[in-house]
Design goal:
Layout lengths: L1 H17 L35 H8 L6 E3 L3 E8 L3 E10 L7 E6 L4 E5 L9 E9 L5 E11 L6 E10 L1
Parallel strand pairs: 2-8
Antiparallel strand pairs: 1-3, 3-6, 4-7, 5-6, 7-8
Amino acid sequence: MMKSIKILALAALCTLAFSCNKKEENKLDHIPGVDSASTVVEAMSQESVNPDDAALVKEAQSKPLTTVAFSETDHNFGDIKKGEKVEHIYEVTNTGTNPLIISNVKPGCGCTVPDYTKEPILPGKKGKITLHFDSTNFDGSVNKVADVFVNVEKAPVRLTFSANILP
């Protein structure tokens, strides 16, 4: 009986830890003194990388390194109706001297689906990352993230968005 209770408790904890939580609070990375509308992301990264993502970081950094700038790294959808599906395009510019390779974009949960430029982005050229968000399972204020694995010194780069889900 006690073993069954422990197993149920463990299952409940795992479910909570790995599910999309509508009240999910994520740390937003900001670089002081830099305008987010044209943020240069050479130094922007997560403070610690999930051990499961270490292989993605290693793969991204195995390519010749370059630098990248985003048109923005944070977007606010404002008020949207529950069940509405929205998307936002983050423009990516290769500001370095080597081709920029987006090897993966990993959203924080299954409610967000990424689409991104798959071919190398030549120096001075632009690419894009589109995040598609389905608000069906949420109410109120939400903050979501997606980690972008690129061949820059401090990867992954974190993109964020927020929304206020109305009934």
